[in-house]
Amino acid sequence: MRYGTLSQAALFAFALLLSPLLFAQATSSSSPSVTQTSSVAPTTSAPATPWWRHAVIYEIYPRSFQDTNGDGIGDLKGITQRLGYLQNLGVDAIWLTPIYPSPQVDFGYDISNYEAIDPMYGTMADFDRLIAGARQHHIRVLMDLVMNHTSDQHPWFIESRSSRNNPKRDWYIWRDGKGPGQPPNNWQSLFGHSAWTYDAKTQQWYYHKFYTQQPDLNWHNPDVQTAMFNVARFWLNRGVAGFRLDAITNLFEDPQLRDEKILPGKNAYGDPNEGLAMTTNLPQVHDVLRALRTVVNTYPGNRVLVGETYLPNIDELEKMYGAHDGQLQLPMDMQVGMINRLDANMFRLRIQQAENDLRGNMPLFVFDNHDIARSWDRYSDGVHDEAIAHIVATILLTTHSAALMYYGQEIGMVTSPPKTRAEVQDPIGKIGWPKQKGRDGERTPMQWTPGFDAGFSTAAHTWLPVAVDYKSVNVQVESAQPDSLYVWYRKLIALRRSNPALRDGSNIMLNTSDSNVLSYLRKNPWQGPSVVVAMNFTAQTRTVKFDLHSYGIRGSRAQTLMQNGGVATSVSLQAVNLPPFAVLIGQVE
Ligand code: GLC
Ligand code: CA
User: Fold this and answer.
1) Orientation of helix 385-398 relative to helix 485-498, angle to 10°
2) Which residue is closest in CA terms to ligand 1's atom 3?
3) Could you please report the per-residue DSSP string of 32-48?
4) Would you name the residues annotated as active-site residues?
């Protein structure tokens, strides 16, 4: 283990909170902003498909990626500087978490102006240069669109709270309390305590699913939809490839304001657990998604809608695509990546569901993001962490799915939570300390080099401290190590693009009663060879056998395309030896 392992409870608190209920341009040349696309496979008879179906999307948390002006906070120029790195890694698109002007209570998810750039990240000219630079590197840019709520400093809300009869009053959710000092109902904020805040001036309460400073917009009001869709047009016109839709399941609440059901136990904030039926995933969400998709479709180049979709099961996820691709192209699948233990049966089941139960729509697998402890810590066993991280990468990039990565995942950055409450930046860590330490741990600066500030900045103090392992865990050092996680990621991404079976093959689970080894076939849809992927989830050597005849495959040997952990380069499918936590990606011959 390279660094301390977090307690399961602490590391997953945020995703657990959300989970109970819980991103332009086309096949290349038609795109207005990307002239060439790397999404067209070079070597197959594959029909042209929209770029996003095979995409590797890379999430950048701009504060933490690359600082260029020495203030300890990442910026747009920094991202532009690193486009060569991203192209070399092989990503198709980057998703930027919010860079709009913001009081930064929720580090940008509290937006006070949707059509500008926060000066701490740069200027609109910097943004345009980023888009143009990205295009040269064949990388698309997705913006984060926060439609559920604004900052309490947004002019809309300032007007709304100014008087009960202000024209924008109804843009937010204002209600009378039940009695003096009593909120309208029992709804809780996902960030702790009541979701209602009293406004003394107008003597009513406003609703906020997240922080007090993030009032929810009232999506029952059509003017809200009009305003927000204009925001989408603003960025589409500037050349973004689409959006990642923040907190999309939270747009609507029960108009009757019925209480949520109280469930047994208490959450990390000490509040009673409660259901989410009245405030999450209401059916009207789909009407908005359909309407937004219609707007996005008026732009050329296969612009994409990605959704933050924490949902309870595959059926709810399936609904997010809508009929005939009418809603999201890529709602995030949080089922596979957040199993949080190496359980072969569970991975098999979930990957199979994504393959079979989405009507041919493409799942978007994700293991890491800025809200949950890094996968390194969630899957490690303290002994084989490096090998396990190779397994996580393999699942993400060799299954039949689009893939979402988070900066630093490719080098094995670990979660580095604050040690004292005083160090905490993320407000939920202050509200919930010590059970909920907040999300700082997964947002530490990108580790580029073994040098000062890990090459992230020149500041004496970076906004979050650089993780202690940066001297060995960084891009520069790992680039020079042939067996590093970074090199593994780069090779996997190149392979999934160039290999027809990995790119387009169906995903067929093999040896389905094996609880130690997860194996699947990526069946070549054309004439060429298929690919077998096998991963040993245990600390013991395992020998597995594959019978592929029933899938119409005659070969009896596999030639390894990639392997880790001491697997032979050519193996008989009758007896494949897999050392502890080893990975085999083999082409069947
Ligand atoms: C999403 C974002 C998270 C943010 C929240 C409120 O869950 O990923 O970081 O705090 O929405 O906007
Ligand atoms: Ca800066």
Assistant:
1) 20
2) 371
3) SS-SS-TTS-SSS-PPP
4) 246, 308
